């Protein structure tokens, strides 16, 4: 299976970016290949297209399935498992944000809450900073949860309003909660 030049460039870029996003190069390339593929691909096709080992392809597919970014698709008349990505770009973005929140934000929030529960440690400044950080993360996750509940159409509309909303907040005299130090 030969990858056309446009796809090849995209796949290579995703591989390079993978390490910056916290995944390895091969996983990024597998995802990019599946993302651009009109048809679901099996592990042998992925292995051939990317020039990687079968075990590397299998491990990458398992990681992408754990992230819910690829889906198993059965092809009539073929006993092999085939894989594809969701068609809806907004669904992909929502999955990525949700999974990153689950893996990165939630454990940090849990730790901050646990530190606060330990009670006074005699370090007022550190305690205040931990509390301030927890409050900010809770506010951000609350905003995320509000946005996650919106239908895609409404979310897109909201995003297109962007700076106009900020201007409206300024006009109405909106004040964001903050703590002065």
TrEMBL record:
Gene3D superfamilies: Winged helix-like DNA-binding domain superfamily/Winged helix DNA-binding domain (1.10.10.10). Residues 22-80 form the HTH marR-type domain. GO terms for molecular function: DNA binding; DNA-binding transcription factor activity. Keywords: DNA-binding, Transcription, Transcription regulation. The keyword Transcription applies. The keyword DNA-binding applies. InterPro entries: HTH-GbsR_regulator, HTH_MarR-typ, MJ1563, WH-like_DNA-bd_sf, WH_DNA-bd_sf. Belongs to the GbsR family. This is HTH-type transcriptional regulator. It comes from Pseudooceanicola lipolyticus. The lineage of its organism: Bacteria, Pseudomonadati, Pseudomonadota, Alphaproteobacteria, Rhodobacterales.
């Amino acid at each position: 299976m030969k990858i056309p030049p446009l796809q090849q460039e995209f796949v290579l870029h995703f591989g390079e970016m993978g390490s910056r996003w916290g995944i390895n190069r091969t996983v990024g390339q597998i995802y990019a290949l599946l993302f651009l593929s009109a048809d679901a691909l099996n592990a042998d096709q992925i292995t051939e297209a990317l020039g990687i080992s079968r075990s590397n392809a299998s491990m990458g597919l398992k990681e992408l399935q754990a992230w819910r970014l690829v889906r198993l698709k059965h092809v009539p008349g073929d006993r092999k498992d085939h894989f594809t990505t969701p068609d809806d770009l907004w669904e992909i973005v929502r999955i990525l944000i949700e999974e990153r929140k689950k893996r990165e934000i939630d454990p940090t929030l849990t730790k901050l809450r646990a530190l606060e529960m330990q009670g006074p440690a005699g370090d007022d400044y550190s305690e205040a900073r931990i509390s301030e950080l927890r409050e900010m993360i809770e506010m951000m996750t609350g905003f995320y949860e509000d946005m996650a509940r919106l239908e895609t159409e409404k979310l897109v509309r909201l995003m297109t309003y962007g700076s106009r909303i900020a201007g409206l907040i300024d006009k109405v005299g909106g004040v964001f909660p903050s703590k002065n130090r």
